[in-house]
Structures are given as structure tokens and as C-alpha cells.
Amino acid sequence: MAMTTSSIIIINLLLLLIISFFTKPITAEPSDFKQKPLLPPPKMEDAPNPGGGWKPVFDPVSFNTIIGYHWDGGFDYLHDDSTRLQTVELWIPVSRANLRYGKPTPSECCFGGSYDGAPYLIYIHGGAWRDPEIDAMSFNKTAVNILSSLAHQPGALSPEQQSKKKLAGIASINYRLSPYPNHPTDPSYSGDIDRSAKHPDHIHDVLTALGFLQKRFGVKEYILAGHSCGATLALQACMDDKRWNIWGGIKDGEGDVLTVTKPKAVVGFNGLYDLAGFIESPPREYKRWQEAYKEFVTGAFGEDEKVWREACPASADPKWVKEWKLSYEEKRRKVVLVQSLEDSLVPVEQTEGMVEYFEKENEKLGEDEKVKVVVLRDAKGGDHDEVWKRGDKMAEILWYVMEGAI
Ligand SMILES: *[C@@H]1O[C@H](CO)[C@@H](O)[C@H](O)[C@H]1NC(C)=O
């Protein structure tokens, strides 16, 4: 592809989506309803260690087919010290579940298997750092869609396909929230430790969860996706820990110090990248949200505008792109920024500002050090939350990123 010096790629999303990649479901016909499942369901009650929380995930298009397993209730990433929201949800594709002992476990994880290099997909939910109604399970629909397309790939369950290293697992992170005392139906109260968080608590939790996934499940390479403030957190995870007052690694609930590997790619959906910029001069059609932004930003980051600037990926100074270091062989870092042009809460200017920041940083970097930036402006992307509520387009875009197509 002919590339300009800026190395920024803009893709017309509508054109892109014409190439539908979801292969025809192999068991979609009603007459096939009684078809044998791709793999026999494991007999959970016979498992040697009963009480495990792996629950089968059934295919939305052929209901008796198991396409993966989801750990019911999430894992506490701080072990006994975890609060209610310090958990991570995990899904594993059926082809990668180790059923040898009658109990599914991720096949490459620390239960004895060796890591084979397949990446994880990890998601950080949005909700303006405070919404009690949005959590890690908001990724469930997208996760199930991805597991489904994985299972329906030709030869999905053959050993050759498994060795293609496409996807080892899917995780979605919960983190403590900031206060929301005037929430209409579920107001926070001051003694709630899960809803009293203040920056940098949120990013601490995210990094702890990433460390937990590395230690417990052998996650090395991963794509980190986030929606709204989850996109902010995903890019904050690429910055130097010292910006978040972390010196000498993250401590987990077992007393170990974890080194957290950075993601090889970040995908931001309808992301917030420059809060101070928005509050200072919101685009005209978004001016009515100025006070609401100020309220949640103050709740999450405090009153000091300098802190807002330093915390946000498009305004942080000194610049941070060089801090995003990959510790494995892969050198190329990638950012995919997806913004719906129908989003009534977050303006496209947030994404534009982020692109500009990368553009300027890239100018200072050598050719192989540049961050590849892909921008998808979706004219028919729906309102702010539609992309995760529906889960189909989000799955499609993430699939493209996993395939390396974008
Ligand atoms: C996840 O989504 C699938 C498909 O929409 C649904 O069948 C399932 O019940 C959901 N799981 C949970 C735990 O909500």
C-alpha cells in the first residue's frame, strides 16, 4: 500500500463491511437442530474438581453447539483482596479448551500446557468511570459473536486450524468506579469501596487485571480494546506506569510483583482522549454536555485541570508514545480508532485529536518505530453505546484486527 509519511490510514467503514467475513453458519438450518454438537458437552458433574465455574457457551445460530466456555462470575484478580468490581471475565474458544480431565481449562495456560503464541483479546468497558449499569459483561455479545465465527471457520476444530494461533481467549475487565451519587436508580453512597475510586485507581485496577491474566493464564500477546472511557484506559495502559504512581511493578493479591506486558494493538471505540479539551471548548452540537462532562471528570480525576490533561492520551505532556514498549519480538504497534458519526455523547473531534497526536509523535520516530494508526469513521455507527449493545459490528472490527486485515 502506498503510504504517506504520516502512516495514518483512513478506511471507509461501509466499503470495508461489504466484505462480510462471517462465514455461513454450518448448522443454521432448523432441520439441523438435532445435529451432533461440534464437541460433546463435558459432563461437569464428573469433573475431578467439581465446583469449577466454566459454563458452556452455546452458538447463537445453532443452539446445541458449544462454541466456548465462560467462567461464571469472573475471576478475582486480587484474589482474597478483590472487591466486588475487581474481577475479570474470561471466555475460551472450544477448540482451545483442554478437556483432557473432563473439565475445560484454557489449553495454553499455566495448568501444564505451554504457551503457543496465540493472542488474547482483552476488553475494557466504558461508562464515564462511574456508570454502575455498564460492566465487563457488556462485552458478552461481542465475545459470543467472535467465538461463533471462530467455531464456524472451515476446519475450525482441526489441529491445523488450532495451530494457526488466531485467538487463545477473550477477557473483559471490571474496575472500581468513581462516585455517582445522583444516578437516577442506583446512586453510590460514600462507604462503597467499589464506587469511591479516584484516578489513578481505575488504571491501577486495569493493570492489575492484565498482570493477573499474564500470571494465571499465560497471556503474552494481546489486543486491548476499549469503549468510551475504556478506550482512554486502554491507551493509558500503554504509557509508563510511573505516570500512575506505580514504582517497581504492580503488586497482586498473592504478594507477587507483576510486570505487565503492553498490548501489541489498541482498538478504541467512541473513545474519550482529551477531556480538558472537550470541557474547554466542546464542538457546538455537544456544548449541552459541557457541564455533564465536567461533573464526571471531576468525580473521576478531581478538580485540577492539569491532572485531566496529564491523564489523557491526546493531551499528556511529556508525550508518551515511546513509553509503549513491546517486550516480545513483534515491534509494530497499532492503534485502531473507531468513531460513530451518529454518537450524540462523544464527538469525532476526540478521535481526530488523538490521530493528530500520533501523527506528530510518528514524525519523530524511525520508520519501523512508527505506530500504525487506522481510523474508522462510521457514518452509520448508531449512538454512543450501540456498538457494544449490538455486538455484531464490534465483533467484526475486532476480528479484522485479529486477522491483521486492519
Ligand atoms: C451472553 O450472550 C449470549 C448470546 O447473546 C446469551 O445467550 C448468554 O445468555 C449471555 N451470557 C450471559 C452470562 O449473560
Detailed description of the structure:
By secondary structure, the protein is of the alpha/beta class. The chain has a single domain, classed as 3-Layer(aba) Sandwich (Rossmann fold), CATH 3.40.50.1820. It is built from eleven helices and 13 strands. Strands 1, 2, 3, 4, 5, 6, 7, 8, 11, 12 and 13 form an eleven-stranded mixed sheet that branches. It has a two-stranded antiparallel sheet with strand order 9-10. A hairpin with a 7-residue loop joins strand 2 and strand 3. Bound molecules: 2-acetamido-2-deoxy-beta-D-glucopyranose.
Elements, N to C (H/E): EHEEEEEHHEHEHEEEHHHEHEHH
Derived from helix and strand composition plus strand pairing, the structural class reads: alpha/beta
Shape: globular
CATH A-level architecture:
3-Layer(aba) Sandwich
What name does the CATH topology carry?
Answer: Rossmann fold
What is bound: which ligands? 2-acetamido-2-deoxy-beta-D-glucopyranose
Radius of gyration: 21 Å
Identify the CATH homologous superfamily: Alpha/Beta hydrolase fold, catalytic domain
What is the terminal-to-terminal distance? 12 Å
Question: How much helicity do the residues have?
Answer: 25-40%
Number of strands: 13
Assembly of the depicted chains: single chain
Question: Beta fraction of the residues?
Answer: 15-25%
Largest sheet: 11 strands, mixed
- Count helical runs: 11
Extract low-pLDDT stretches: 1-7, 12-52, 109-114
Number of domains: 1
Task: State mean pLDDT (0 to 100 scale).
Answer: 84
